[in-house]
Input
Amino acid sequence: MWVLVCSWIVLTSYFYQNGNKSFRCKLATKKVIFGNYPVDVKKYEEIRDELLKFGLTSNQVKVFFYLGKFGSKTAIEISRNLRMPRTETYHLLSSLQSKGMVMSSFNHPTKFSAIPFDKAMVALLNAESERLKSLKNSEDILKKLWAKIPNFGSSLNEIEEEKFQILRGENQVKSKIMDMISDVEKKFLILGCEDDFLRFYRANFLELFENSSINFKFLTSTSENAWYIFDDIDKSKIRQVANSVIENLCFLIKDDKEILIFVKNSKIIQKEVIALWTNSKSLIYSNILLFKSLWSIQSESIIEQKISK
Output
């Protein structure tokens, strides 16, 4: 009897401890703790990821979020509730103040508070604009300084090698596409689904093909509801294919010399745009063959046929 009682106590203790641990783990996966207050992890991470695009660090976002959602606090309170070293906390507060996102009081001890979110966004946008202006002003100076130092590598005069470049984020990808379109000599091919061409339209890439002498061709699965994006473009150079054929495909080919391929999966929501640029002859050739094959399926542009009716 005593053995049974002891066994029952041991088992009860085991399941109680592990059950609580499991329960705490489930909570931890769904909530992030600010002091004594749980905050939905997914919603917080979405806000954090957007603010990181403005050059803030993860800890800067955490401090700003805490002050913005929980009100003014002293440095000691921030340090304790966010579990940060006090010296780092003061450094973070100082950097956020310099960005115009946090204010301090004259009280003792000093209390820090976040400025209203809409004003914080204006401050961040203005800071980015000023940074871009500064970089633009430095462009000519850097070019002159670079030209003053001669090239020493013999490889600069060698035959061009096949290369590739991984592009991450919308800014890198857009910049590369703009370079390709502005530098095209004879021919430009684009294959993509409706979402891809809507992205190109919003980025003003399609405007560059209006009244253009470039020999361009577009293959797309764009539906009738979105044909407005091609209003000012020669419809004879656009052909429509089934979305099921190209939903996971999107590439741009310039002069049969360069190709940019989007890395994507229609069944997965991607947080970051990723693309591959290369001058690989075999990769370019195989995709040109694919483009020609899909182009030949339709002898005449479906968009042009339906508009003429």
Notes: Residues 26-118 form a domain with the Arc Repressor Mutant, subunit A fold (CATH 1.10.10.10). Confidence is low (pLDDT under 50) at residues 1-29. The longest strand covers residues 187-192. The chain has eleven helices and twelve strands.
